[in-house]
Design goal:
This protein is of the alpha+beta class. Helices cover 16% and strands 26% of the residues. Strand 14 and strand 15 form a beta hairpin. Helix 2 packs across helix 3. The longest helix is centred in the middle third of the chain and has 11 residues.
Length: 264
């Protein structure tokens, strides 16, 4: 006769960061309301099946990048998306609350390794001696700075475009303070940060935002996810460096990053 009793299930850990999602111009905009500690990996005392595959229920304001970071998913958001493509769909930046994602065995192994080692910069992110990084990893240059054309109100392209798929993590190139985080008209969802040296860095056409106005950020910190909001023909990151927060004060963004020791 089989033994009677109930198997106690480990409760799924939840992210403690509360976010609000607003739709502006057809784009999902995630703005953090209250900062809080990230979710923790599941307790070590689990059944073998739980160690092999855990699940996470998506909450309002989540993104694959945030979930992958909080749950220590080996391979990051791209691996999380690959494992859950059938459930998520064709656009990794659009995940609905209530959706259940499989985290896999790599999450626990990564969490254990993280406790034993010193935190390292994300893969492919080159941190210069000056404390600056590239705005995205492994991207190719699209429309260059100062390319002329009637499609731009100034008569030329005021930034540099980086060709990346929707959902790519966008990073602060240096330490600074967020001065703008929201809808920017033709720029779509945008973030502008004032860098420590007084320059301003603009990130446009984002699919989601990870910061809000007034936040202090460090070099390499995620500001949001790339996308195709605003006036665009396809997903990419439009990146500008300005001498003031105003349109028209742009300088060559790649030359600026290279002057800070960043290889782009």
């Amino acid at each position: 006769m089989p033994a009677k009793g109930k198997h106690r299930r480990t409760r799924t850990q939840r992210l403690t960061r509360t976010l609000a999602v607003a739709t502006t111009g057809g784009a999902a905009l995630a703005l953090p309301l209250v900062g809080a500690a990230g979710a923790h990996a599941a307790p070590a005392a689990q059944s073998d099946s739980a160690k092999t595959a855990q699940t996470y229920t998506v909450r309002a304001g989540d993104s694959l990048a945030k979930i992958a970071d909080a749950q220590h998913v080996s391979g990051g958001w791209k691996k999380l998306y690959e494992d859950n493509r059938a459930a998520v769909g064709s656009d990794p930046s659009l995940i609905r609350p209530g959706l259940k994602l499989t985290l896999g065995a790599g999450a626990e192994a990564s969490a254990t390794a993280e406790k034993k080692t010193t935190a390292q910069p994300a893969a492919d992110t080159s941190t210069a001696a000056t404390g600056f990084v590239a705005p995205v990893d492994g991207a190719t240059e699209g429309t260059p700075y100062h390319q002329s054309g009637s499609m731009w109100s100034s008569g030329y392209h005021t930034g540099t475009d980086f060709v990346v798929p929707t959902g790519t993590s966008v990073k602060a190139v240096g330490a600074g303070t967020v001065v703008t985080a929201g809808w920017g008209g033709a720029y779509g969802n945008q973030v502008v940060i004032k860098l420590a040296d007084g320059h301003y860095a603009q990130y446009a056409h984002l699919s989601a935002l990870s910061v809000s106005s007034g936040d202090a950020v460090t070099a390499g910190q995620q500001l949001g996810l790339s996308g195709a909001t605003g006036n665009v023909t396809g997903p990419h990151l439009h990146f500008e460096i300005r001498t003031t927060p105003d349109y028209g004060s742009d300088i060559d963004p790649l030359a600026y990053l290279r002057s800070q020791g960043v290889s782009v």
